[in-house]
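Our preliminary data section would be incomplete without showing what the modeling component actually yields. Below, a chain of 470 amino acids is followed by its predicted structure, encoded as tokens that our downstream tools consume directly.
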Amino acid sequence: MADEGAEEYKKKGNDAFAQKSWDEAIKNYNKAIQLDPKQAAYYSNRAACLSSKGDHNSALNDANKCIELDPNFVKGYSRKGKALFDLRRWDEAEAAYQAGLGVDPENKNLQSGLAEVEAGRNRANRPSSSSGSSSFGFGGAGGIGGMFNNILGKFKRGGLGGRMQMYLVVFAGYYIYKNFINKQTPGTDTASDEQTGPEMDDDDTDRQATSSVLTLKRGFKEISGHWLGYLEAESQASTMLLMLHRSSLSAEAEFGKTIPSLLEEASKSTPATSLRLLAPDRPCHGYSPCSTSAASDVKWLHGLLRVKGKAKSMAYVASGREASQMVLNLVRQRKESAQILLVSPSTASGADAASWRKLKSAADVGTWIKNQDGLRTAADAAEAVRWAAAAATKEEKGNEASGELDVKGLPDGSTVSILTAADEVEDKGLMEELETQGVVVRTQQASGQSNYEELVVTEALQLIQAPADA
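Predicted structure:
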């Protein structure tokens, strides 16, 4: 029987843990251990906090003490596997999870941990020259470094013209700004890589709670002769969530806060929701240079999804009118029922698309940016300027979305959720047209900006879970 006073400190520790107040939680678990040093759960809980702080060696010590006190306390093996995973000691992590499965062969957290160890080992052993991604760094011959090498090779062979050379220069400057000058941009903190890995659970009861979150990485792929940049969270899940940002922004600017929250909430749900997430920078946005295709063309999306591997089920989030039309076109062409969230689908773009072709000088840009609505942060404004300047060099037409969304021909069984901001007017015509097509429609309107972002996460989670429930 645990000491009553120790249990009180444990409860305080659990409350602090839920608030991510790691030091406060550790302080309370320390007091619980002082009063009753024989309770395995106290060491397990403290290990979870230490892992969250990045102190993986101390977390491993606590996990070993937990198992020593109670070899049947299965969460101790989960803590040990997590700590060894974060230390990149793949074989030992695998052995820890296997030992736990010897106690509880059906434990989902341990099974998930094993899968993450295998994925981590494969990533670590993957030759750098064949890697298509990097954790927001140059990544040696892979990732951005590999992309530059390939492009420079084409320069030497005469495979790229003057415009593509200009794109490379702009792209390189943009990359340096985003990753070395503007290090505080949400969603690009590489230090978090050390704090991610297999799922963890809470020891207060048998329920699952806070778990570590999948690693968010930046990757690059060459699709049909054009480079694409994207954010992704890889896992063994059968469901993929594709997220498309609105015009003038980028995946990072649009979803830089949303994606981490989404991954965290997915890992905390009961049971934990497993997913693969892909958020590409659309052509002419973010890290993706402009292409020669019309803005509504989705061939590049088909190509990206093909090289990223087939998912058993797909869910989609699209922000703004143009991205919404792209997702609708993609779903129609794939001919598979889908769960779709359209965020502000009547908003043509985050910037006035009618005037960016007139930009000729820095003074033009300064005047233009002052007249744009919907750009909430300095990062949004920077993205919009870069997009407008790049798009203004294009000779092709058809880059601005206009008119009503084409929702005809969506596959049977598809559902569409529509989320609008507090200051937007709901598009009744869009809802009626979807219902006429036999599509199940749900609508929500946010009460404010913070509520808007929370609703995106909540609605996206429902999309992910819907295919499995069908």
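The chain has a mean pLDDT of 76. The two ends are 45 Å apart (CA to CA). Preliminary results of this kind motivate Aim 1 of the renewal.
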